[in-house]
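Long-time lurker, first post. I've been practising inverse folding by hand and with some scripts of my own, and I keep getting stuck on stretches where the structure tokens seem ambiguous. Below is the full token string for one chain I'm working on. Before anyone asks, I'm not after the true native sequence, just a reasonable design that respects the backbone. If someone could post their per-position residues I'd love to compare against what I wrote down in my notebook.
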């Protein structure tokens, strides 16, 4: 059996086929990067390390950002679980405020939307 065959691969293909990227995320991803402001969702990238983050605050050369995931089943009492209507992802997301950290602005690779106002 090759890595691109078998039940696990078939489940992965089925899951990928069922994905729906909301229009707001597609538009943000394709647009020119806006000026970073608190509440925006970004992909942060440093070499091969990539993380979705929510901007908590923005300075002149850096940001304070918290990781964002879709793994609501792993949320604990340190996590903030948002409903599908609370972000442009249109699905529940988890923000990990206790894991917030200061990042240089240049790691903000692509915008991925925003939290609901």
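-- Answer (accepted) --
I ran through it position by position. Result:
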């Amino acid at each position: 059996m090759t890595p691109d065959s078998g039940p696990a691969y078939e489940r992965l293909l089925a899951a990928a086929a069922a994905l729906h990227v909301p229009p707001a995320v597609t538009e943000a991803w394709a647009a020119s990067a806006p000026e970073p402001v608190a509440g925006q969702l970004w992909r942060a990238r440093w070499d091969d390390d990539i993380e979705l983050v929510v901007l908590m605050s923005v300075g002149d050369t850096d940001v304070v950002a918290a990781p964002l995931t879709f793994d609501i089943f792993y949320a604990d009492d340190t996590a903030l679980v948002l409903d599908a209507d609370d972000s442009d992802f249109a699905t529940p997301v988890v923000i990990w405020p206790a894991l917030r950290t200061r990042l240089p602005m240049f790691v903000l690779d692509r915008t991925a939307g925003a939290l609901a106002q």
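A couple of notes from the structure itself: The helical segments are 7-18, 23-30. The chain is about 15% helix and 35% strand. Happy to go over any region you disagree with.
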